[in-house]
């Protein structure tokens, strides 16, 4: 900016201007007296010369500076007025610039124009300072438009001048360059600073770097050139650290356009020693989320950018990420530092978008360690819940253009990896990556996402297929128009349906139907292909493909809204009872899923009545069983089950059955017993839709009898032929499935009479199951009839054929029978069983679950049933009551727990890959509901479950005597108690109660349900915790550590079964190990507790009889010794790892306390190691080798430094510790030799690492003695290999030694098999 010292009071005109001026005073430029008067330059008669002279500046010839007769402000004002008033304006500006260029072509004139003008005023005062002519011309704005420094060829004169200074042999003084930088314009400053590395000598780099560092803090406009210059200078590590710290301090205030250069300089100035610290600080200051605009503003910014008016913040962010990518790609230390920093982020709120972006960058590099490291960190953070969907959404939406251009392949690869993981939380996060990639990126990326999801579906892996189909369905719902463009990709899955389950096929056709049958939808071209596939599958004679056609056709009907295709499905399914049953089940699913459809106006009636005739052709005498209605009822109906089954087996469906079903077309069709339950389900759902839940028209089917045979025939099963036994098994399966479907239908009725009948049908089910167990035991190899047709096939299901005596069977098996007798005998037509039946063997029905009809979620509401008085039904029996008994409670709780485990389990069970366990068999209806729906229903039952829990506990508190008649009830309530705790644990541990956003990509209205359910869960959890605390206070007195005392109390009491035998088996050992771990983890002194068990309990066990146990610890016997041994060794190793390491700065008391702790630990370790002499089985030896090495490593790391500092003051304690520990190491050495001679790979795998640690111990002790100037107490000897019995291993006997220990000063020969023994002689 120009400075004005004094304004002239006289306006000197052109005629009054002197032609010669006295130069008596010193020139401001030359600093010396003028020897001659310079002449005026009158040769320049151009526009430039005329206007300059008229404005008050006199151009001089030679080396004399130009003169100015007026103040520089007046000069600039006059010249500006002349240019504007010229008739040739604005063309006169170019003429003026041309005259200036021609004038400065002469070097002397150019020099004069660069020098300050000499004032020449009328009063003779020339003391005021004036600028040069060129600087005054630059002060006129209209002359700045056309740069006088650039010619027509675009040559920049200052840049050319600076270039002349580059690569000189010697630069004498660089101070003038920095002075020029301080006064020059910004553009010239940038040119000079950028050229400094090419101008300076190496010796001048440090001084200039310090000046540039100061300039960087003063002027942020020069950030980019200064950092470019600093990057090219040769600086010392100390100076570079100082400069980097200054740059890091200004990182938060730097301009977004300069941020990439700053990040690049910081990363390229990192050394291997400070990489972790610098990267951690850089990550903390990088806030890329603040560098991007919201999506709406980004759209407007992109429109402006397309017009060429401005850049985008996305470009700057992309350059920043490119800087990081180049650094991690070519510097391994930086990539490792980024991985460590990302892994050390501990909380979810601290994990930022830059962390996620850097993981994508690391994965995109070609280095394998970076890719593996990025995958590992991402999995760890996702598993820990530190990367949530919200962060992923912000990252993708805020940096979509950057991500899809550079790192989309890495994002897609990571999503594929996560989707294939067995951990559900990783699978969910992989789904979020797919979904947000589709919604945030362009069409190319969307096509790749759909193609990858289709690949997952075609893989045939159950978990991948389910998640991929769910994601595709969600994308169709959320982005239907975009997904319609890729319908041809999804249609390709139709060629891979052989590897899909029925539920997956159902979802696939639902997906395709949603895309194909939308009005005015661009994906309607796939309709014909779907129809062709469906008709082809329906016409197949193979049941597997016919099943696919039925499922697809019903799904298409549900999307089209027309029923024409149903006629084809019905005609194709008439020839097969399995296909007809599946058709009814699929229609049932459609009716329940789409209420108010075309089928709601239809009526289906069933006539299941038949005269009570007993033809002689039946294998068993028939009778009406399980009638719950009044016997004198005039309208008598019965389910004709036994005649129907007999006819089906005899004629194989060739003749018309006696029971007829009339559909809307009034066409008689043959009914197979397989179709009985599916058709009733369809009938019930249609009635529910038509009559808004009222089942009055068909309520007679709940209490009507069944045409069966007397169940006393089970007692004569040994005298029956195999076909007769198989017939009886099939009859029981059909009966149970009918009752299960009846319970599904009427469980939601509010009428007390209906509730009573539902509970009674549950009692019928439990009773019939106990009978079925016995008849299955007498019929090995029997294959039951199918019951679930719309789920996975039950082919290949492993059926249990082993029989178990009731007294040795699983808990609840015998109780189910006796409980069913007790409760069912209150009703007529249910004969009581004899006592001798209890001794019959039975088969567990666990493996037969796929052959029972699935219970709906609504059945769980029966748990809320309390006492219902029979007086409501019959005034004559008002004193009798029927309640939900123990057997029914166990039945419902087991079904509830299986549903929760299937739908809400967090971590899947680990199974061998070659074992194809079909977990979804029997859950076809449950698979069509969301986990939130099941959880919300179960949450409403939490008060009821807590009430049942208290009732079970109260029963055990009151009934403490073991009467034989009460054993069955005890077993049932014990099973109910366990099931209740498992159900509550599964409900409470469901992650969406804590993290609602991590449950499903599309929650929608279910978020409100989750919020409400969370409050109920918290309330129930408080109730359960209060109940547990009350019971704990009742059991034991309040101890200092309650948990440890309670666990000890369980360990110190004998565990027996209901029959009085001692508990044993894997389950018992697992429970015992858990209790022992709890006791040792929560006790006040772990070392003392281990010494108590090993020093008292085990000697008592050794002195006791073979089958006896320890007197102090009754749970410790020879069968559970391994459990105790492994638990003590593991907890001892954990305890010593928690001992603080010894430090030289510790006080004497602290050192003594630590030394005492190590003495106790070594003594416990010595006791445990010596136990292998008595208990020498393989498992005990394996535990000793494993934890012995870990204990030795912990002692070397934490104990030996303490001995270094404590040796002089506590010589005797250290001596005792080392001698005791040396005995343990010698026993470990013998154990290594024993493992070698046994040639057991399980044991020998631990030997190399253990021997290495033993050798390190020898040399570490020698180093400790040397440090304390006591090396003469240490000497070496040869230790021969011996087995556990102490006998020498002859095959490894040393050639030149007969004694076990031989004094020597040298190490044995390297080829010798003898080990080295350290002898410490204090």
UniProtKB/TrEMBL annotation:
Organism: Esox lucius (Northern pike)
Source organism, top-level taxon: Eukaryota
Record-given protein name: FA complementation group D2
Chief place where the protein resides: nucleus
Record gene name: FANCD2
Protein keywords: Isopeptide bond, Nucleus, Ubl conjugation
Region of interest: Disordered: 1-31, 1289-1315
GO molecular function, one term: DNA polymerase binding
Keyword Nucleotidyltransferase: no
Subcellular location: Nucleus
Family that this chain belongs to: Belongs to the Fanconi anemia protein FANCD2 family.
Gene Ontology annotations for the cellular component aspect, listed alphabetically: condensed chromosome; nucleus
GO BP: any one term: double-strand break repair involved in meiotic recombination
